Request: fold
Amino acid sequence: MTVTKRILNGNTALYPVPAALITCADGSGQNNIITLAWVGTVCSEPPLVAIGVRPTRHSHRMIKDSGEFVVNLPRADQVRAADYCGMYSGREVDKFAATGFTPAPASQVKAPLIAECPVALECKVRQILSLGSHDVFIGEVVAVQADEDVLQGQRLDPAKLSPLAYVAGSYWSLGEQVGVHGVSRRSTE
Reply:
């Protein structure tokens, strides 16, 4: 069987990726949530994750100044709230209030967790890399909090977690599409 490939210009084509809710806080106590798909594990010892954030985003300054962030993993049924946090700026709206998410205290960082998300990785920034359109914040995972109902022993159970993934403008959950980019805006207009 012969398969023909086509060259796709200007595309990372690395899919699926997690649709994560990153929480951060500034020195005055203002919290924010930003939805990111440029999120991934980059080292296991020490445990490091990387998030890519455009320097123009409100959360960029908060993370850079505080040196901390939390990676919250939403469930697929939280797709509208997750999309909302990526469509609107924290400069103009309190995303916790707008989505009904509850800020909860983290154990090792000042940035809050999202109480309704089943998994949260508390991170301290180890390095910032300016790469072009995005800066990459490499964060050391200093604590992980997980709801009991998504665990099987000491491991996360993906079937119980029902994680939200992002694929080329669409949201998916373990192979099932659950929304598209902008779904929260379309339902309110």
